[in-house]
Amino acid sequence: MNSSPSVKIVSKCFVKPKTILEESKKPYYLSPWDFAMLSVHYIQKGLLFQKPLHSTDTLLDKLRESLAIALVHFYPLAGRLSAQINENTKSYSVFVDCSNSPGAGFIYATSDLCLADIVGPKYVPLIVHSFFDHNRAVNHDGLTVSLLTVQVTELVDGIFVGLSINHAMGDGTSFWNFFSAWSEIFQAQECNKTDELYLKNPPVLKRYIPQGYGPLFSLPYSHPDEFIRTYESPILKERIFCFSSETIRLLKAKINQVCGTTSISSFQSLTAVIWRCITRARRLPIERETSCRLAADNRGRMYPPLPRDYFGNCLSALRTAAKAGELLENDLGWAALKVHQAVADHTSEKVTQMIDQWLKSPFIYHIDRLFEPMSVMMGSSPRFDKYGCEFGMGKAMTLRSGYAHKFDGKVSAYPGREGGGSIDLEVCLVPQFMEALESDEEFMSLVYF
């Protein structure tokens, strides 16, 4: 069993759905969006709690029991990927086999670290990566490893619950819908509710398959070596910057006033700030192009729209760009309008075009090509109810992520713990750029300490 100097793996097991549904005995097919994710990392997010008064063994038992029930609703996560290969026609297909799988992974680990060792340092300590399974795994590895692993790490005075979910199975919306559903089931068990299979918002598991296609798609390859590429992140500094609800409100109002509009959102306003400030920290030549990308949920942009609780991938990376000189010479409103326009231009027609493009020429995302050098990528979302996942331990102290998808310029947005529209940004930069960002007066004047 793999262990780090401060994290010891105590036990590993697999958890299957408590009830085996008839539909789970059939192949579970993936959409074009899911196929595109086969060469990127698992999603790794987790919550840090104060240690509850009851025993850890009791907590682990309840987590496993509620997980088994959650997997009835999300049964594909208990499966494994399976491949069909035709070397003669260069055809490579993948689907989920929910029958021939040991289930989802469940790991119990211990650590000699304290809560203060995680939340106290200025920079997120690298040991946090050890709180997650599937470190550096790409989604194609789901042929041989679990599609979901829960790792519960017991600290001296805390509990960290870390989830690693195969990104070919779902996007951030799907990830947090599962996390929330699992917590909801746990809480229902705590309250001794009779209908343990009830969920307020059950997932919609039926995958989006374009009319006239599928259900099994294929890639034009005969071996995974032709399209799977591993990725190693550079040496980075990772820091959480907090922005109060009042700061966000004033920032949004100021930018909309400057731009003579009311349509620029809080998130777009903050994105403009981080894009400009990271660009200034990098001291790019004025003619150098710098881009900003945002992850956009396509559920409501589909025609007809997909349900809010659609389980799977349904997102695009929107892009806007400018020369470094014009980005910094113009005011903040100019940058915010660029970001806003990229979102406004992302219509249902654009989404349909993207799907049509994939059907004509299937492609796979690669981390080293997806994100341009000297760019900023805004991932995750402050809209997800991440602090609503409590598992009987009260509100989490903080949220942390694993090794996955970390590169210079990656920014992940989370709701602030105080709620009310506050936002936390997890910023990853190479050390010299992080140092420069921390010296940026415009940026640091907005940060809440």
TrEMBL record:
Gene3D superfamilies: Chloramphenicol acetyltransferase-like domain. This is Acetyltransferase. Belongs to the plant acyltransferase family. One of its GO terms (cellular component) is cytoplasm. GO terms for molecular function: acyltransferase activity, transferring groups other than amino-acyl groups. Keywords: Acyltransferase, Transferase. Coiled coil: none annotated. The lineage of its organism: Eukaryota, Viridiplantae, Streptophyta, Embryophyta, Tracheophyta.
